[in-house]
Amino acid sequence: MILNQGRFCVYLYSKRFTIINKSQKQKEMKHIITIALIICAHTIFAQTTEPQKVESYTRVKHPVEWYKQQAALWRENINKNNKDESAWHNYLKALHFVTVFEESKSTLEQRNNAVKELIITMPACPTRYIMEYYIRRNDIGFNDKQLVEKVLETIKSNMQRVEFYENYLGFLLIEYPHEKALIADICRRWYESGDFSSGILNHFYNELAGIPQNSVIFATGDTPTFAYLILQHAKGLFKNIVTVSTPLLYTKKYQQHIYKELGIDPIGAEIGFDNGKGGYISNEEACLYIIEKSKRPAYYSSSSKLPSFTDKLYCEGLVFHYSTTPYDNTAVKRRNFEDVYLVDYLREEFTHEYPIYERIKLNYITAFGSLLKYYKECNNSIRQKELDTLLRGIISNNKAIDQQTRQHYYDKYDSDNR
Asked: Is residue 413 a contact partner of residue 388, using CB atoms and an 8 Å limit?
């Protein structure tokens, strides 16, 4: 019998060759195993040379070598068909992420030359305008009003392009934060597409559910900002809570939008990084100004980078409450866990989730570790067991950490709760 596998053939003796000594059989078996391993390796290599969708590193973060490989693979597709818009989209994203993690003159030139090539090859396609803005917006002195207007036109005429929703929202918050109807429309479409993680929405639902209406919540990343907006616009929840994306406070239009939203006067100073000459206030100072002038309850997401004034931040579960006066935050934390937060999705879920969501789940370990001690001290064994089971399950089932990291979490968890 002959088993064909590409250009490899494995020959098996037919029944008429029945007398084969033991040594010959062993040699033959080794030969077959060697060829099988070569076939397997060949198959695996063939699979890895297929280009893969390049997603935002806020969803799936890869080593820089992975982005370089994907850039090369998508470049091959473009060489075969330079009108393949999807290939251009993935190619440019891969090149951009290479520059994010490994900025150098050569990588920046490669990325910028690719944008110029796309402009010549497909000058009117949505990818051209979206990716050109996405890549150029951080250039010093960027002020291409014509490109900004073209991106807005592109959004309005390509509302069905799910792959751009993240870019759409980021662009609108920077350039047109007052376009509330358009922002709401994209949020609804993104939610209805099923492309946005349900696990992430569950997490940030709990954050907002645990704080009072008319609060202001500060976030330092795209993930919490987009999740808040989707919950508000697509689900109609927490409409009176104002989200402030702190990195966007560096942009004038977003600043003005937040001041108007909160009904406060502008700060009257430039928000920026210290240039050594003074004249700028820090991002944190701007947040403190917003807290003071708005007179609203203020919170920071546990999924964001916390400011330096941690002595004024009190953990209430998945959020930190800003307060200049000490208070019993354990009572609020207990209320959130027992009566407010929806946690069934942490026990069992049936959807594929992105690695970032798996890491976000680990926030519950930090958030409720002290509450476990409280239940133990109060001899509330039922609540203690319930919370302990939940938190241990988050560690044991987490797909974003390796065994060594998992053991580290177990060791720290056991140490904190002795």
From this structure: no
